[in-house]
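[Help] Beginner question about ligand-bound structures

Sorry if this is basic. My supervisor gave me a protein sequence and a SMILES string for adenosine-5'-triphosphate and asked me to "get the holo structure". I don't really know what that means in practice or what format the answer should be in. Inputs are pasted below exactly as I got them.
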Amino acid sequence: MIDIQGLKKQYKSTVVLDIPELFIPKSECFGLVGNNGAGKTTLFRIILDLVRATEGNVRIDEEDVSQTENWKWKVGAYLDEHMLLSYLTPDEYFEALRKIYRLSEDDLKLHLARFEELFNGEILGKKKYIRDLSKGNLKKVGIAAAMMGNPEVVMLDEPFENLDPSSQNRLKRLVLHEKENSQVTFLISSHDLNHVTDICDRIVLLEKGNVIKDIKEKAIMVDELNAYFGT
Ligand SMILES: Nc1ncnc2c1ncn2[C@@H]1O[C@H](COP(=O)(O)OP(=O)(O)OP(=O)(O)O)[C@@H](O)[C@H]1O
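Answer (accepted):
No worries, everyone starts somewhere. Holo just means with the ligand present. The predicted complex, written as structure tokens, is below.
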């Protein structure tokens, strides 16, 4: 489904990402980990064509993301708050997305009902602008937005960061429920080794832009990562 070939990103003479080959099949819950500056966000930004690779390409269902547009309707993503419209309230924002995705009002209600527990009464009907939300609540809006319109791929950059412990567990349950009930392919970057290993089928570990581990066996994930990170 997502096929990465000969991917390299360079800023001046520094190579920040170098991935000869990486394939992420449909329905996989793919976890991406690595220390600060390892290249996780850069990889996500290249997949979304927010930055261009220096060499190589990313294909989603055979379509080169830097050359075509149709893949955009298959992908939902939340990388950071720049992806939100901060002058709207969350209700206005979801309504705007409803129109973009051509969903009915009932579809939107159904979608948002899935997030009721995660929103914890803090997001909807509050008449508070997105720009005034706490970091955790901003993240919740972004995640709910990324999952709108039945995307085939959902990309979340550090989704557990800034969430309180109950919200982290609620988000985990939400992703696990989605995994069980749909064919969505998740790409999740995280510094939280426990959460990411709990929900992901596979973990790729980046170090200085290189894939140094690609772990597909659930039983050894935690030990392998603890050994690497010294945790
Ligand atoms: N526009 C840019 N110009 C120069 N260097 C950049 C630019 N964007 C990213 N980098 C560099 O690319 C490298 C990878 O950064 P990236 O943000 O992808 O890492 P990350 O794994 O997401 O880190 P973190 O865990 O801290 O969020 C870093 O060394 C960063 O400084």
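A couple of things worth pointing out: DSSP finds eight helices and ten strands in the chain. The first helix runs from residue 40 to 47. Feel free to follow up in the thread.
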